Amino acid sequence: MVSNTLKLGLAALLSLQALSTTQAEVFKTEAGFVASVSHTHGFEAKKLRTWLGQAKLKKSIIKAMNRPSEAKPWHQYRKLFLTERRIRQGAAFMKTHQKALAAAEQSYGVPAEIIAAIIGVETSYGRNIGSFRVWDALYTLAFHFPRRAKFFQKELIEFLQLCHEQGFDISYPKGSYAGAMGIGQFMPSSYRNYAVDGDGDNKINLWQVNDAIASVAHYLQQHGWKRGEPILHAIPTPASTEQAEALIALGLKPKLSIAELKTQGLISPAVDDAVIASVMELKTELGTAYWLARDNFYSITRYNHSRRYAMAVKQLGDALVHRLRSTP
């Protein structure tokens, strides 16, 4: 990934903590961004201006951000990922990379089928890792998408730091329209904080499958995955949908014990009363369905903050297990 052009020649590299504590503002102009980043993070202002001048505004990225798949109703969203092709390819992926998946599960406690399902949802098991230059994507969203400007300006800085650390040419890495990279689609900050070496070569390359597998598992573990625990439990439609809506409004992060949820009129599965869960609903073609979501479901939503996404991962993982058990 290193070329002789546009290499990052930084004298110093400050930590992520410094970034998170100093970037409290949204930069209205590129000049303001350059002045602040060069002062705070040790980047040469002249180089920053050159790199920004070479970035290309991609209007197609703005359009894509305004129509995300997660906005679709669940029964439509599900059909994007729970396909025969994706299940077949996923089973093959799990057979091919059985050793790496088993090692990641052993190290981080995340089941192999969940790791594979995330990679399947993100990039069709590495077949579609994105065609946008990450620099262009982050630039476009940092300065031409006001609603998320602060987030993407932070990721733009993270990407510069990542390129320095990994020896990447900033013009080289390609990824999604949101700037996510590799087989598991990590944003720059996630790459820096959660990517790990999965094959023991002392390098971290998320375009390499063993590193991607280990990094997905590590990410989930670091975001609260609990080894051996369920992901969620289906429950009957509550007697009081108004009460259910009030519980759903508390958010996906588990806060209430099963005992407390029972007092709110929910019929729970055979789960210990001390277990903490949240209430979740999705609109199906047959009506609204309800679940109790556990910490492991919430962990998946830290990868993508969408309950539809997390449910697609869970159900694709189940489908992969079923396919592997039913075929030689």
Kindly report how far apart the N and C termini lie. Answer: 39 Å
Please identify the structural class as seen in this structure.
alpha+beta
Question: How large is the count of helical segments?
Answer: 16
CATH superfamily of the domain at 1-54 and 130-180: Bacterial muramidase
> Helical amount among residues, as a percent range?
40-55%
The ordered string of helix (H) and strand (E) elements is HHHHHHHHEHHEHHEHEHEEHH
* Order of neighbouring strands in the sheet with most strands: 3-6-5-4
Biggest pleated-sheet summary = 4 strands, antiparallel
The pLDDT mean sits at: 90
How many DSSP E strands? 6
Give me the CATH architecture of the domain at 1-54 and 130-180, please: Orthogonal Bundle
Q: Which assembly state applies to the chains in this document?
A: single chain
Q: What's the shape?
A: globular
CATH domain class name of the domain at 1-54 and 130-180: Mainly Alpha
Quick recap:
The chain is α+β, with helices and mostly antiparallel strands.
How would you describe this protein?
With 328 residues, the chain is of the alpha+beta class. Among the domains are: 1-54 and 130-180, Helicase, Ruva Protein, domain 3 (Orthogonal Bundle); 232-293, no CATH class. Helices cover 52% and strands 8% of the residues. It has helices at 16-22, 30-41, 45-54, 59-65, 74-81, 84-96, 98-108, 112-123, 134-144, 149-166, 188-194, 209-222, 241-248, 258-263, 295-301, 307-326, and strands at residues 132-133, 174-175, 232-235, 256-257, 276-284, 287-293.
